[in-house]
Design brief:
28% strand; Nitrilase/N-carbamoyl-D-aminoacid amidohydrolase
């Protein structure tokens, strides 16, 4: 990925029962992204499986076959980077994993969800991440912050400290907490001086979903917001120069005092 590139978040109307319909919705978004000249498209969390985890387990894809997943096909068809999460069968158990595929369908990066949302039934089926770090996407370092992970600023800070200047946030965030979603996205971008790209579901499901898929810049400005009503793509241009400019304008990283941030939980610093 070049120092400046175009990225979009696909806001999709999804089914909790029809995987083929979800793949068709994602394919339409990829076609739209290609027409817009985007370099990267982020899909919502569990975009193919849907989200009805309180009643049944998602159908898991085998870890040793990730490059045969539908997302790899979509990346090849659209000739762009495609990312989203998948219910993945691993030796540790089923994980909710962010996968990022390049234009040839090759796997570029991955990250398991760190914090499982108990009220949504996730702990019943999934195993949480046991490690994580940014991954390389061309000249960018990128981190995965999957839905509920957004509520834990320590995780985003760890990724930013590891060099990430872009956080990918696929989500299935309900409409009833839509204002919180927007606030948390803004905060994670602003406090870490990074771009945040978030793709959320919209429309009816086992609960109504709140949209607000968007792109937030390192100063906390929303460059694009898909709103709360319809499917679509929120997109914009990301620039590494603007990350540097934001950090020079307000030198938060220089002014940190790690010695004051000791935590009894880990014995480390934030």
């Amino acid at each position: 990925m070049n120092p400046e590139f175009r990225a979009g978040a696909a806001q999709l109307v999804l089914s909790d029962d029809d995987r083929a319909a979800n793949v068709a919705a994602a394919r339409r978004a990829v076609q739209q992204a290609r027409a817009l000249g985007l370099d990267l498209l982020l899909l919502p969390e569990l975009w193919q499986e849907g989200y009805s985890l309180d009643s049944r387990a998602p159908e898991a894809w085998p870890e040793d076959a990730v490059e045969r997943h539908a997302m790899a096909d979509l990346a090849r068809e659209g000739h762009l980077v495609v990312a989203g999460t998948v219910a993945l069968a691993t030796a540790r158990g089923m994980t909710n994993r962010l996968l990022v595929f390049d234009q040839s369908g090759a796997l570029l990066g991955q990250q398991d969800k760190v914090h499982l949302f108990g009220p949504g039934g996730e702990r019943r089926w999934f195993t949480e991440a046991d490690a994580g770090a940014p991954f390389r996407l061309g000249s960018w370092e990128v981190g995965g912050v999957i839905c509920y992970d957004l509520r834990f600023p320590e995780w985003s800070r760890k990724l930013a400290r590891g060099g990430a200047s872009l956080l990918l946030t696929p989500a299935q965030w309900p409409a009833v907490r839509g204002a919180q979603f927007r606030t948390l996205l803004t905060a994670r971008a602003l406090e870490n001086q990074v771009y945040v790209l978030a793709a959320n579901r919209v429309g009816a499901g086992h609960v109504p979903y709140g949209g607000h898929s968007g792109l937030i810049d390192p100063r906390g400005n929303w460059l694009a917001d898909a709103g709360t009503e319809e499917a679509g793509i929120a997109w914009g241009t990301l620039s590494r120069d603007k990350v540097g400019a934001a950090r020079r304008h307000l030198p938060l990283w220089q002014d940190r005092r790690p010695g004051m941030y000791h935590t009894d939980e880990t014995g480390g610093t934030l």
